[in-house]
Amino acid sequence: MQFDVHAHLDLYKDRDEIINKAEQSKIYVISMTNLPELYEKYVREYPSLSHVRFALGLHPELVKDHAKQLPLFLSLLPKARYIGEIGLDYSKQKSDVDKRIQQQVFEQIIDHCKRCSDPKILSIHSRNAANEIIDIIGRYNGQVVFHWLSDKNVKLTEAVENGYYFSINRQMASYQSGQNLIRKMPLHRLLIESDAPFTKGNSPSYSVEQFVDTAKQMSVIFGFSLDEMIKILSDNFRRLLKNERLD
Ligand SMILES: [Zn+2]
């Protein structure tokens, strides 16, 4: 089974074609949105997809200018199963005001997720803010996926104890510090993402080969055969969807 738990298919010009390609290739793609108004639009435009799913998002880097969309986000939340891209971005150039607004919005989103009766699958952006994210989410009875985790000082043990997953992309698996972090993550919590079109090395169009390419890189990091690695990753993805956890 091939999958991609974090992509931005809507950001491609030839969106329809790419969605068709993913559907025909039977690749399960969780496609992020960056604003709730976009999620609302795509769910309406593509009502009957079998492999591609849109996630309800409010991207942390857009929060400062689009905080007005929070009520729309919260109104769409009860019916949405996949949530992302959400999170915090505390890159150096972000102002204190920006960070404060991001934090307030993120806390409200998490609070509302926890109050929903069904478990959601959250895809989390955590640049320079991984530990703040862990403090805000804590334990959650749905699923939390740390997307492209890069924070070396992350309290990884706590994230693992909380049951979080980690989605790995091609770029992250290609540099030394990324590989060092991946090696510390438990095998049963690893997933694959493309973060397309943002990762380097992605072709101008969405690459359906990225799953196998990334699984290959991971098999080298962990010393497994490609088949063994794909089996581990597919089992993880199934557990994620069933809202099960291996401790
Ligand atoms: Zn993303």
Account of the 3D structure:
With 247 residues, this protein is an alpha/beta fold. 42% of the residues lie in helices and 15% in strands. It has a single domain, classed as TIM Barrel (Alpha-Beta Barrel). The protein has helices at 15-24, 36-45, 63-66, 70-76, 96-115, 130-137, 156-161, 176-184, 210-222, 226-241, and strands at 2-7, 27-31, 52-54, 82-87, 121-125, 143-147, 165-168, 190-192. It has a 5-stranded parallel β-sheet. Helix 9 crosses helix 10 (226-241). The radius of gyration is 17 Å and the shape is globular. It starts with a strand and ends in a 6-residue tail after the last helix. Residues 6, 8, 32, 85, 195 line the site of zinc ion.
